[in-house]
């Protein structure tokens, strides 16, 4: 347990390694998962705005996390407005990404879902660099590993994509 | 069409009435929906950080939207750091909400999904005030209207919730 719902917030964390889950205990006594944090991700940003944590942070396996103490972060933002601006930009960017994942999940066909995800996430040249293991992509778009592998194989067979290593390239129409 | 992908960004919008969809045109010529905007919602916040829009904004029916011109917003944030701070807080809050909706969608049982959503979104007294029509809740948690109605009826029958008007109260265990 990294922190508990209701305890005094000490700052923002970044997960370095491992997997960690944010959970909320409800009045009825149930523990409801809110979000699974992955390496590299910032979490508990809300603690900057609040004196207490709004959820539990529970390590799912051995985790390493970096703490950015609240007072230091607030001072840094106060002294350097451009740092606050960069943080705001990062939040706006992540909001966009999560919304896109929600929208993608409305698509019923696995093949179509994977293709649309790649279209949205690829760069201007139509290239998508896999940032982590393929199972993260499966989780992000709500498919089993097997369904994802089948969809990728089908897309490549039908000439929609070309795969090499951690790179997927959308083929021109 | 309110704005087009690639056109020069003029500012941030808030939808007053109607429904509007953010879409991205892909190199392959497909239009991929990214997000459906509802009344009250801010959109195109990314335009504050970028000279061009990254997507199309297409009205789905008659819409009214309020424009916050970019230069005015940036000046306001520069003059009043507390306004930028409030904006950052709003983004952090929305990110949390969208993540929670993604997590909720992993739950297969419709009844359980509705109950967990209410647990996460209700206030400290276990009360959830419906902010809009019930069909928005259905969309948010990925259920058909019918499945949502059935789940709510079942939860009430089994004594988990109590409904009156736009308010749903979680019953103590």
TrEMBL record, chains A, B:
GO terms for molecular function: DNA binding; DNA-binding transcription factor activity. It holds the Pfam family HTH_Crp_2. Keywords: DNA-binding, Transcription, Transcription regulation. The keyword Transcription regulation applies. Residues 108-173 form the HTH crp-type domain. GO terms for cellular component: cytosol. PANTHER family: CRP FAMILY TRANSCRIPTIONAL REGULATORY PROTEIN (PTHR24567), HTH-TYPE TRANSCRIPTIONAL REGULATOR ARCR (PTHR24567:SF74). Gene3D superfamilies: Jelly Rolls (2.60.120.10). It comes from the Bacteria. This is Transcriptional regulator, Crp/Fnr family. Residues 1-49 form the Cyclic nucleotide-binding domain.
């Amino acid at each position: 347990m990294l922190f508990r719902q209701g305890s005094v917030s000490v700052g923002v964390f970044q997960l370095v390694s491992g997997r960690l889950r944010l959970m909320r205990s409800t009045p009825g006594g149930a523990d409801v998962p809110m979000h699974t944090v992955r390496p590299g991700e910032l979490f508990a940003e809300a603690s900057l705005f609040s004196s207490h944590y709004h959820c539990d942070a529970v390590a799912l396996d051995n985790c390493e996390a970096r703490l950015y103490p609240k007072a230091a972060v607030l001072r840094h933002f106060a002294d350097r407005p451009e740092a606050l601006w960069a943080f705001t930009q990062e939040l706006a960017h992540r909001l966009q990404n999560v919304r896109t994942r929600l929208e993608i999940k409305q698509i019923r066909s696995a093949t179509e879902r994977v293709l649309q995800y790649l279209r949205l996430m690829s760069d201007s040249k139509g290239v998508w660099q896999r940032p982590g293991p393929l199972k993260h992509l499966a989780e992000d778009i709500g498919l089993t590993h097997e369904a994802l592998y089948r969809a990728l194989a089908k897309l490549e067979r039908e000439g929609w994509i070309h795969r090499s290593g951690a790179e997927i390239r959308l083929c021109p129409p």
